[in-house]
Amino acid sequence: VTTTTMITDLLHEIGGDKIDLEGLMGTGVDPHLYKASENDLTKLFEADVIFYNGLHLEGKLEDIFEKMREQQKTTIAVTDVLDKSTLIGSENFASNYDPHVWFDIEKWTQITSYVTKNLSEIDKKNAAFYSQNAQQYLERLSTLNSFISAKIEELPKEQRILVTAHDAFNYFGKAYNFQVIGLQGLSTVAEAGVQDMRELTQFIIDNKVKAIFVESSVPRRTIE
Description:
By secondary structure, the chain is mostly helical. It is 43% helix and 10% strand. The protein is built from eight helices and five strands. Helix 1 (5-15) crosses helix 4 (105-122) and helix 4 (105-122) runs antiparallel to helix 5.
């Protein structure tokens, strides 16, 4: 069982038809606010292994994962592999780290290897299969990283500004040298105030920002 769509996709790529994969969250679901249904709890209790992001991304599910561990359920936070010194901190976020690590392909590469290692240890007979799939996936990630870097080079440095509703893209900004401005904080639990809106509006005008990106999991009204 997996939580977010990113992790579900990763396990699908690595596990293929050798695993019975159940993802809890569908497309466009906000993991910060997600509440487990009775059906979700059944999936979690029946799972052989649970893969989740960690760093308090799945805020309301943390207590459930703790109970799972107490019952000797194998739960794996994929971000455990990352060096904490490379994570982006936040004084205003409960975990003190930004959990949106998948926007940095180098970090997702580390997570891919970590997930593959854990899956191979749990299911040794299919380890070679998982390793082969992971290698192909890692090659695609490398190609993607090269494509993004080359594309961004076409954009003048002063125009590398990313404005969005939710402050989820700081790893992208750090990896590809973008200034990232989010109206809401790291967690969508935080609401934007009138002063936040005024400051962002002025920033957009002053910097002649041409586009604002709104995630499908965040209400459009505030940013509009």
